[in-house]
Amino acid sequence: MRLNHKIYYQFFRAIFALYVVVFLFACNPTKHLKPNEIFLQKSSVKVDNRKIDKDELSNYVKQKHNKKILGVFRFHLGVYNIANKKNDFVKKNVGEPPVVYDSLLTQRSASQLSLYLNSKGYFENKVEYKVTYVSEKKVKVKYIVETGEPYLINSIKYIVEDTALTNLVILKHYKSHIKKEKPLDLEALDKERERIRDVIRNEGYFSFTKEYVEFLVDTTNEHRKVDITIKVLNKKVTDKNDTSNTEKVRHKKYIINDINVYLSKDFLNKNVSTFDTVSYKKITIGHEDKLIYRPKMINHAINIKQDEDYSLEDQQLTYKYLTELGLFRTVNIQFNNAENRTGDNKKALDVNIYLTPLKIKSLSLEVTGTNSGGNLGMKGGIVFVNKNLFKGGERLTVRLNGGLEAQQLINQSAEQVEFFGLPFNTLEFGPEVNLEFPRFILPFVNTDNFAKSLNPKTSLNYLLNYQNRPEYTRNLTQFTFGYFWNQGRFVKHYLNPISVSLIKIDLTDEFRDRIEEENNPFIVNSFTDHFINSSTYTFVYSNHTFNKVRDFQFFRFNLEGAGNAHTLYDRMARTERNENGSFEIFNIQYAQFVKVDFDYRYYNQSSNGNIVSRIALGIGRPYGNLTVLPFEKSYFGGGANGIRAWQARTLGPGSLPDSLISSQFVNQIGEIKIEGNVEYRFDITKLFEGALFVDAGNIWITREDEQRPNAEIKFDRFWQDVAIGTGIGLRLDFGFFLFRFDLAAKLKDPASENPQEFKLQWRTPNLNLGIGYPF
């Protein structure tokens, strides 16, 4: 988005002036204190053991100092100090009152730190605190923690009162949370109690609870050695006639009798015994209304099996599979005691599964903001969804999309275009049809027994898209067939063996003349009709856990290859080549390339804010049938999600001089991209969030080009080619989406006369508007 640089400059100065004022007022934190109150200037923890998580230890401090940005500036306290009664809303929602020192809370904090260390096996810890009066009204508190040597686990012994459980418990010991030579950790003991419970319940002992697992901890050994005895107790039974008389009995195994599934929009005051029923294999389905699901689909989602021992894992997987179908508002699994019909000594359970269906069909109108490569716009569409197309959980989504976007001009001299009187220069519309199957579909292969734990899905997608830009119009026809599945909690796989795209481009006369004037095959081939038949594989890892504040990582790897199958066929069939020496399909030269992308991010969470680091690398190598990457597969630099000091497609490639960039603007695409970002995010209010960031990187081409000097990547010139930008951001977090303003300035410009010089160009910053976080 382009605004006048004077506006940027004034905005930058206003933000800077506001920050200086707030900082100065924050320097006087005692302004609103009462005569007998003392300001807590700093609260810190010093620990002599690197094995202890200092951030976790700090959580047990009862009184912390005021929040700081970058650990230095008390922004919120400054707002509180400068706000007056007329600005009471700002004072309450943005400001933070000064923290008044409380000696009692300091003592409690020291006690809590000691108790925490005790729970981690450091029983000989020593926690002291030092109170330093900086002035008459300011004080610092430092907690000095000496952990001492931990008590280490010397031996682990099992006492299992029921011999039938002995082998079961010991054979699974390799998964234990407690290990020899590790510190005694009470949290690990509690996790071990839950693990043993789950192991035993998985083998049919439905009524077994963690209260039957006890620990005897002997700390009387020399040299801080701990002996642990794990006791698995039998069940206590009280005589009904004499409550003082109890005896221990073995735990009973449970076997599954009947499996009943009930479907109703509302089970309140309903008698399920009056429902119509249908039997399939070994389950019975009771339905209040007409049955709209195939019994095979419901049976496939139920992991619990009749006449087999109860298993906690089967119960959990059944709940997971039924929920992931996306067909039911609620899933409730209940177990009731029943008479055992198998004749053995096991107890029996009837399983009742209550499912509340969601609406199968829906028609909606969607209007959203978009942020495609840093280009803002708006998108709307009519969406029809059928969640159960063939009665097996197949999800059909039909969209009629339309959108407007303010895209960066490829040709700066192109005539500005507006649609419907709005400041957008790009119009898109077209239908999209997506069909998703909740299972793998492979020709001539029975996938019913494929691991359901992977939650496999098959997707078919067909898309038509018309795009009208100032420089050209584009028609896209695309078909994709693929699979995606989960691997554990944190890993996802996406495989599209078939992805076919046909792109027809109609250039304006002015833009065609501009390209022909450059006489550059790279650019000419990038803006011609082309056909892409590719296969892609994407691996995604993210250990982000919702509702838990902790550090997490994200990693994405993408591999794409195109044109190889066609080329192999054409060579075997001895297909004639065109005048360029290339094969064609539908009289269109098709692309042949391989492309690899990496994207790694680390999210560091702390009480003072979050630091997000990211590094992204990508390389696309055209070969064979087409010597350049298609335009939409090429890399570009800059934009709201990249190096924000540059507008999208205005950076690089390499250290191509500004004089050539201004005359050959369309050249700013490349085949290699390397980018790194560091962003510090901090809360201002519940709605507003601030950010400070540094971006670095560039794009390059893989081979020398006389018309684009210094555009190819060379290791001896790499540092010269790196662009660096820095800036500040303001975000509005509405929960369901986040609106972002990022103001960035160039710090090192590879296109300048001195590409190695550091010079902050803060008088001409670049304002980026975005939706969602940049990464």
Describe this structure in words.
The model has no long low-confidence stretch (mean pLDDT 86). A hairpin with a 7-residue loop joins strand 7 (235-238) and strand 8. This protein has a 16-stranded antiparallel β-sheet with strand order 14-15-16-17-18-19-20-21-22-25-26-27-28-29-30-31. It has a 5-stranded mixed β-sheet with strand order 10-11-9-13-12, with helices on one face. The protein has a 3-stranded mixed β-sheet with strand order 1-3-2. It is α+β, with helices and mostly antiparallel strands. It has 14 helices and 31 strands. It is globular, with a radius of gyration of 33 Å. Helix 1 (5-26) crosses helix 3 (75-82).
Features of the shown structure:
775 residues; alpha+beta; 16-stranded antiparallel β-sheet; five-stranded mixed β-sheet; 31 strands; 39% strand; globular
How many DSSP-defined strands? 31
Radius of gyration: 33 Å
**Protein structure class:** alpha+beta
In which range does the helix fraction lie?
A: 10-25%
Global outline: globular
Give unreliable regions as ranges: none
Sheet-strand content, in percent, reads 35-45%
Distance between the termini: 19 Å
| Largest sheet: spatial strand order | 14-15-16-17-18-19-20-21-22-25-26-27-28-29-30-31
In short:
Helices cover 18% and strands 39% of the residues.
Blueprint of the fold:
Elements: H1 5-26, E1 39-47, H2 54-58, H3 75-82, H4 88-93, H5 103-119, E2 126-135, E3 138-146, E4 152-160, H6 166-171, H7 186-202, E5 213-218, E6 225-232, E7 235-238, E8 246-249, E9 254-263, E10 276-280, E11 283-287, H8 295-301, H9 312-324, E12 328-338, E13 347-357, E14 361-372, E15 375-386, E16 395-405, E17 426-437, E18 457-468, E19 472-487, E20 491-507, H10 509-518, H11 521-526, E21 530-542, E22 552-562, H12 564-572, E23 584-585, E24 588-589, E25 593-606, E26 609-622, H13 658-663, E27 672-683, E28 688-700, H14 718-721, E29 723-733, E30 738-748, E31 766-771
Parallel strand pairs: 1-3, 4-6, 9-11, 9-13
Antiparallel strand pairs: 2-3, 5-6, 7-8, 10-11, 12-13, 14-15, 15-16, 16-17, 17-18, 18-19, 19-20, 20-21, 21-22, 22-25, 23-24, 25-26, 26-27, 27-28, 28-29, 29-30, 30-31
Helix pairs in contact: 1-3
